[in-house]
Amino acid sequence: MKKELIFELSEFRSRLTAVKNEMARRGIDILLVSEPPNQNYLTGYDAYSFYTPQLVIVSLEREQPIWVGRPMDRVSASMTTYLDDVNIRTYPETHVHSSQYSAFEAMSDIVKEIGGEKARIGVEMGGYYYSGQAHVDFTRSLPQAQFVNADLLIGWIRLVKSRAEVNVMKQAGQIADAAMQRVTEFAASGIRECDLAAVIYQRQISGTADFGGSYPCCPPDLCIGRRSIAPHAAWTDEPIPEATVINLELSGCRHRYQVNLARTIVIGTPPPGFSELAKVALEGLEVALEAVKPGRTCSDVAHAFHQVLIRYGIDKASRIGYPTGVAYPPAVGERTASIRKGDVTVLQPGMVFHLMPGLWSEHAGVTITQSVVVTDGGVEPLTNIPRELFLR
Questions:
Q1: Looking at 131, 158, 185, which one is the last position of a domain?
Q2: Any idea what the CATH number is for the domain that residue 206 is in?
Q3: Residue 44 and residue 200 in contact, taking contact as beta carbons nearer than 8 Å
Q4: Residues of the chain with pLDDT under 50
Q5: Would you say residue 3 lies in a domain?
Q6: Rounded to two decimals, what is the model's pTM?
Q7: Distance between CA atoms of 369 and 379, rounded to whole angstroms?
């Protein structure tokens, strides 16, 4: 079957080597990879199949990982991964959503088959896709194995992107720009909020004239009117008022790599004090961008931003940035570094962050953001739409 690899084989081999080196350092013999973005990162696997049990098994003793999933998804594994057929395995269809049979017990048999019955096994205990039931079934089926938490083992390796990954994220940024540009042109009083959301989705998927997009990890945050002070609000089917604030965060997705972008759109006359709040947000963002340089820490960047807020007597408790990359639902952000005070992660070229220094007061909110890749000299923007208020 013809392979549909997004990256060169050497890219996947480099990633696998880095993961195995970290496994060896921690004394882990076998790693059970349950998080879909990590499965994609190591093998290229891509299909909307992660709602049923699915694993990539990495063994220090085997050249290739083993993908294990539902029988009907074997086709996607054959198409989208570099794995040999012998390393694409399935469990019986009777185990899908069954109260009688466990897919995890079937996966445990494969672990035994490759010599893992008494191994030190790493699992992603803090991930979205490693359930309590999975852990119960694995530990019961492999009673002589030692299970250890390896939740962010791959996450910290993924934090620094390769040049090939950054190139894909630049395309995702162009999709985000196209979607935001379309919204700023379409938004007007009288239009239903849900129709504005539909415009976003249409452009996210259609992408640009040169390349299309894919489904994002999460819906756009479309915070309108009184919900503009709620950072993660949902849209309604109500018409947009004649004078209101729209805080919108969306993303561009290309080959599962996501780049986020937020802007504030003002319909009619801005509320009192709103323009001043926006100026503070923009000043803080520019200072934070200037502070991003290799060798500095996430905390250094947050400190620079907060120095701006202090001058205006404003306090912000939440973080102002997070890393992004390959992602699947339910979330785009990588669960490693955060741009906030106290995070001593050292910035390196190739790291990608969504700088999201939104400001919310009791009556108004401003969300003007920038996704960037850390470079040798500072940052390179991944989106190019102007960092400003959009007035309609």
A1: 158
A2: 3.90.230.10
A3: no
A4: none
A5: no
A6: 0.96
A7: 14
